[in-house]
Amino acid sequence: xxxxxxxxxxxxxxxxxxxxxxxxxxxxxxxxxxxxxxxxxxxxxxxxxxxxxxxxxxxxxxxxxxxxxxxxxxxxxxxxxxxxxxxxxxxxxxxxxxxxxxxxxxxxxxxxxxxxxxxxxxxxxxxxxxxxxxxxxxxxxxxxxxxxxxxxxxxxxxxxxxxxxxxxxxxxxxxxxxxxxxxxxxxxxxxxxxxxxxxxxxxxxxxxxxxxxxxxxxxxxxxxx
Length: 225
Known about the structure:
Layout: E1 12-13, E2 16-22, H1 25-37, H2 42-52, E3 73-76, E4 86-89, E5 92-97, H3 103-117, H4 128-158, H5 170-176, H6 187-201, H7 210-224
């Protein structure tokens, strides 16, 4: 059976262009069903999306594409010399819209309409104030990142050197917790110092250091046992 696609060409007029957009039968049926539910036409769905989306936004929507080779529909001609002849053609959606749209963009617009109707996406209203607020948040985040980098560098400079041999003596334990050699801090003072340093070096903190935390634990145990 011959292919009917060659027999149907878009026609332009003052009222717009008649588009014959090839698509899979599943996609066509979903679009047609949604249009019926909304009391609209496929052209209305596409027009709504095209009017609302900013220029260039459609390029981020995947094109549902052409139907697969086996996805064809049978059409019987109803008039003319070929009346009764059955043609095989690609499934399509026919729409009248202003001239100049690519068929791929019309499929993208309809795909987005389906996604919005299914609750899988939503259009957000972003004002200039929202953009400024977003920029302020990004700048604050960048400043915080820079500040954390500086703090990391300061902590690295001020941190007590690691003891490769671990805690072997009371002097080692005092050194790791930042007490002067020979001092005799009570248990309460020792635990407060440990907690303060653990806030910095605990592996779950922003500046966590497993090795230093392990030494802190050894020092606490040595001084309070």
